[in-house]
Amino acid sequence: MRVMVAPDKFAGTLTAVEAAEAIATGWRRHAPDDVLDLAPMSDGGPGFVDVLHAAHGGHLLAATVAGPLGEEVPAAVLLHDGTAYVESAQACGLHLTGGRAARAATTRGVGDLLLRARDAGARRIVVGLGGSGTNDGGAGLLAALGATGDRPLDAGPDGLAGLGSVDLAPARAALAGIELVAASDVDSPLTGLFGATKTFGPQKGLAEDELPAIDGVLERWAELTDRRLSLEKGAGAAGGLGHAVLLLGGRREPGIELVAAAVDLAARARAADLVVTGEGAFDFSSRAGKVPYGVAATAEQALRPCIALAGRVLVGAREMRALGVESAYATVDLVGEERSLADPAGSLAELAARVARTWSR
Fold first, then answer.
1. Between the CA of residue 282 and those of 23, 298, 347, what are the distances in Å?
2. Superfamily for 2-41+263-359?
């Protein structure tokens, strides 16, 4: 039997590459003769560069960039056939802020990565957006490229309070002639009820009573830059980094579709008898451009069944089918929450071995 294994990361425990390897390890315990095609996936968030590097190689350039709270952090730029891939989470991810200090956290390091890609000769730069701990509307990124204002642009949303003017011309000139693409699963605009602050601010440590004021700061940022672009789908991705990419003349593409095309997911699904996907928590939000939904849609187009392995499964059978998934299985149901968190790879491998008994013929 031919099985394609195409999971996302298991947030906080396993990268997508590690998750695919764990599933394969467990599957082979029960079905050693099955042919497994490992296709770890990403929607643009953490693991974006690793997934693409695993899929088609390329050259990784090491970089040291500004972190969200002013410290230096390690990152990498992936170069492949004239395109550079950068991962915003490496420079301003939630894991770097610990879910706090979003009022002062900056995206300046993402701008540093763009300059590293430019200096390496890239004519096209794809920016993976997701998993950020920042909420500065992308102002820090633009500051790294040379944008200026009458208030500091690289001090988080608190630094933008009272901003009266901004000059984006130097930032646009810095990347002139380079094609920019934002890879993101988020459709949110920059501001408003469904914007970056209201939707994702709480998970970054912003208190409920802080949200209106911070959203107001980004409203002013939008007015001074480009109000129309701030309303575009994806402008609110990664705390407003999507808006910054749009301001630089870039465009937004769904991250899962971009990665699926890069790894030739459709052809690989057609060559399989079964498609296996997964993520840390499989719930109905997975429909919003997340990896399991994208993989399941690809499997459906290929007329192949798709199942999901997850840390937790938080949807019923009806919702599961709406997501295009035949069945979903959780490690916490098999080994319990404590062991699932203490040994995520081993738990996932054990689950995969159990599932293989049902699905491998």
1. 16, 17, 16
2. Glycerate kinase; domain 1 (3.40.50.10350)
pLDDT in tens, 315-349: 888 888 888 999 999 999 999 999 999 999 999 99
CA dist 252 and 236 (Å) reads 11
Alpha-carbon distance 65 to 110, whole Å? 8
Neighbours of 47 (CB within 10 A): 28
CB atoms within 10 A of CB 264: 13
The CATH code of the domain at 48-256 is 3.90.1510.10
* Predicted pLDDT at 285: 65
Q: Which residues contact 112 (CB under 8 A, 6 or more apart)?
A: 63, 65, 66, 91, 144
CA end-to-end distance (rounded Å), the chain: 7
Q: At what angle do helices 48-56 and 16-30 cross, to 10 degrees?
A: 60
Tell the burial category of 241 from Cβ atoms under 10 Å away from its Cβ (0-12, 13-18, 19+): buried
Question: Across the chain, how many H-helices and E-strands are there?
Answer: 19, 13
